[in-house]
Amino acid sequence: MKYLTNLKLKVWRQDGPNAVGNFETHIVESVSDEASFLEMLDQLNERLIGENKDAVVFDHDCREGICGTCSLMINGRAHGPQRATTTCQLHMRTFSSGDEIVIEPWRAAAFPIIKDLMVDRASFDRIVESGGFITAPTGGAPDANLIPVPKPVADAAMDSAACIGCGACVAACPNGAANLFTGAKIAHLNVLPQGQAERYKRAEAMVNSMDDQFGSCTNHGECSAACPKEISLDVIALMNADFRKSKSKNRKALSRG
Amino acid sequence: MKLEDMAQTLRKSSGSRAPVTGTAIAVRKKRSLILDIYSTAVGKKYVMAISGIAMMGFVFFHMIGNLKMYLGAVELNHYAEFLRSLLYPLAPKGSVLWILRGGLVAMLALHLHAAWSLTVLNHQARPVKYQSPRDYEVANFASRTMRYSGMIVLSFLIWHLLDLTFGVVNTVGTDGTYVKGEVYANVVQSLDRWPVSVFYILANLLLGMHLRHGAWSIFQSLGWNNPRFNSWRWTFATGFALVVVIGNISFPIAVLAGIVKV
Fold it and tell me: Do the interacting molecules here have an ipTM over 0.90?
């Protein structure tokens, strides 16, 4: 185990959603290269609390890359410099002694800053909620594999379902668009037989909800590159196609009375 | 099924941290299908893509037609006359050309309006910018400068029309003035002025950059996604941009090099 020394952290501090924020510089004298990025921040916070100062507020929960709670724009990249990694899985060995590390919160109108590095991602919940339910038979537990799903379809659905809703796509997007997130949530159900009944209702409602809160896609591909789960841009194309179809199909369904 | 169940959306978040409640809250206003689609960002991208395809078609055939320059004045002028008398005598002379021109102007207007409104939307989506420099991973110069390359190409287009369609800025040629119908002489005289040629070449390089990102984006925006063919999308975009740019840039170079002369 080696130790990194003399790290210069520039951390964004902001008291509340409407407060003016600024960068605050902290020196981390020594930290193990086996520490995760969040553990490094924990050590900084322990010191700050010991000095009777306000701890740096940041989001975190499972610390194993599956909950989607951690965030952080590290040196201009969502979740830091390592691909397919959440901030909690990022280790200090990625950095070198004496590095300057700039830490900013996600920035988007739909992600208001709560405090320091913590943002409110309820706008994602609104998109998911607008997608509504799927029709599922209730009653006794159905037999396993009652609905046959081809393996490639199951795989595609699983790839989309891997989205943990961390918001890195929005943070990385130069336009603050949530197309990758919404696309993943739509594709997850829209390719499966279980999701067909509400397929077009879901596509229209979720795109509308996304539209109300986020920017638009200009096909940079930054979202997919920043995504800790490496969700493919294909889900955006699927969303666009399903949205187009939904406009005529939903109207047709409605006109049947 | 009621409308409320179909076209559901959620109330605009006012920035307040109210708890997320319910699903269908607001019903979107009923309007015609086209306007309804265009009111959304995804719909505007459809318009960007479709108008882009129309203009790509134009720019491609414009380049192909101009290759006639290498066959001499008679061939090029004959081709210009052919365009004016498209479908003649079925349609009056010039009518089809004007319909095509009208369509192109409409496509350009739609492309510009969609670009403008999406840009406004995108700026609203991130009112407070990142305060530290971004480290982009895959967004390239072309994709991040679409609106600037587009505006420069637009200004070139206006100048190009004034030069060779209306003949307003072509009266300072090396010899003689703009003569309507004398396409070959007009083009050669115009491109024989080196600042004009340089502007022409620069604008076409930007056009190529714009085309490459645009031609790829079309597939995403229109939802044309097929894992079997996806790897060809960049090949197509790069190939298309290269063909158009090389063809277009060859004209001023040929004139300056004296290969094509009056």
Answer: yes
Query: How far are the Cα atoms of A12, A29, A40, A257 from residue A7, in angstroms, in the given order?
Result: 16, 6, 10, 66
pLDDT digits (tens, 9 = 90+) for A211-229: 999 999 999 999 999 999 9
| Whether domain A121-137+147-255 has CATH 1.10.1060.10 | yes
> Is the CB of A238 less than 8 angstroms away from the CB of B33?
no
The tens digit of pLDDT for each residue in A115-149 reads 999 999 999 999 999 998 888 878 888 888 889 99
Give dist(CA A235, CA B226) in Å, integer. 11
Amino acid at position B68, single letter: K
pLDDT in tens, B69-127: 999 999 999 999 999 999 999 999 999 999 999 999 999 999 999 999 999 999 999 99
Average pLDDT over residues A145-161: 95
Report the candidate in A31, A12, A129, A154 with the shortest Cα–Cα distance to residue A73: A12
**Considering chain B, what is the average pLDDT of its residues?**
88
Q: A17 at the B interface (CB within 8 A)?
A: yes
Total structural domains within chain B: 1
The verdict on residue B24 lying in a domain is no
CATH class held by domain A3-114: alpha beta
- The reply to whether A3-114 and A121-137+147-255 are identical in fold is no
Using CB atoms and an 8 Å cut-off, which of residues 77-136 of chain A contact chain B? 77, 81, 102, 104, 107-110, 112, 114, 120, 122-123, 125-126, 129-130, 132
> Is there a domain that residue B59 lies in?
yes
* B6 has pLDDT over 60: no
**b/e burial code for range A227-239 (CB count within 10 A of at least 16 → b):** bbbebbbbbbbbb
Q: Which of A174, A204, A216 sits opposite B41 (nearest CB)?
A: A216
CATH of the domain at B161: 1.20.1300
**Cα–Cα distance measured from residue A224 to residue A242, given in angstroms and rounded to the nearest whole number:** 20
The reply to whether B26 falls in a domain is no
Domain of residue B38: give its range.
Answer: 32-127+144-256
User: At A95, which amino acid appears?
Assistant: F
Indicate whether this model's pTM tops 0.90: yes
Q: Where are the domains of chain A?
A: 3-114, 121-137+147-255
